Amino acid sequence: MSGAWNVADVVALEAETPTARTIRLRLPGPVHAAAGQHVDVRLTAPDGYQAVRSYSVSASVPPDALDITVEELPDGEVSPYLVRDLAVGDQLEVRGPVGGWFVWRPEEQSPVQLIGGGSGVVPLMAMVRAHRAAAHPAPIRLLYSVRSPDSVFFRRELDSLAADHSPFSLTVVYTRAAPEGHPVGRLDAPTLAEHVLGNGADPLVYICGATAFVEAVSGWLVALGHAPARIKTERYGGLGGTS
């Protein structure tokens, strides 16, 4: 199904933050999204104008559904409609899921280090969910940089997973405002070094966020001794970077 446009039914909506929500789409046939893939969404205006945007899949929902999680951009053509106006029962034109580089698959045995900035957590959350669904024994860590508590995507689920005695662990860095008792400040090299798996564990590393964030984090990891070939990156404005 990945190469053709299909009409998907909107079957559920869930607010994640004041400016983001998760949309569950049911496709017309069986679909499987590898963790980290994205779909294209096409909107057509009454005058025939079309806009296509890519959105990361946040969950695969067998046998025929998937979730995308969309953050509204104030000047966006597509995201304000998806976040503010789309309703259960509506339909969207969807192509995908696609993407083969920035993906995690259960057959991979290595520890996993995920690092996300803002809405860059979306494809990483798909990896966390797939890892848990597979009952995978390897450690998996998420380092999540976000502006404030109100900006945290998947808050309840992440808290629940972090409280569980599983291979998953979570660190949230708040850059603008933080809960009481938590420091406030941008993610920096010393904080990164404190909270990621060391290069001795030879983890697969996935980084998703704004370009400056991804470039800085990648550089710090290489400086810590992580092999560049073990670091996979995704930037806003590419796959999963949307408006």
TrEMBL record:
Gene3D superfamilies (UniProt xref): Nucleotide-binding domain of ferredoxin-NADP reductase (FNR) module, Translation factors
SUPFAM superfamilies, per database record: Ferredoxin reductase-like, C-terminal NADP-linked domain (SSF52343), Riboflavin synthase domain-like (SSF63380)
Matches recorded under CDD domains: FNR_iron_sulfur_binding_3
Keyword flag DNA repair: no
Presence of keyword Ligase: no
Cited InterPro entries: Cbr1-like_FAD-bd_dom, FAD-bd_FR_type, FNR_nucleotide-bd, MRET, OxRdtase_FAD/NAD-bd, Riboflavin_synthase-like_b-brl
PROSITE patterns: FAD_FR
Keywords: 2Fe-2S, Iron, Iron-sulfur, Metal-binding
The FAD-binding FR-type domain, residue ranges: 3-104
Named cofactor requirement(s): FAD
Protein name per its UniProtKB record: Ferredoxin reductase
